[in-house]
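We treat protein structure as text, and this decision shapes the records that our systems exchange. Because each token names a local backbone shape, the row as a whole describes the fold. For reference, a complete record is included directly beneath this paragraph.
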Amino acid sequence: MAFEKFNQEPRKDFPPRKMFKGDWKCADCGKEITELPFEPSPDRPIYCRECWSKRRTQRFER
């Protein structure tokens, strides 16, 4: 299955990703978000992992 490769150990040839700390809320469910792997833009919504996953799946089902 395609998801099996994501359950393996992280690749060692990439440096750790810079994380940005802050106090945000998911635009869909309102869940608190305290850390993101990118600097969020004030004019774009932020989603928690679960809501992002749902939205991403819906986008590819078109």
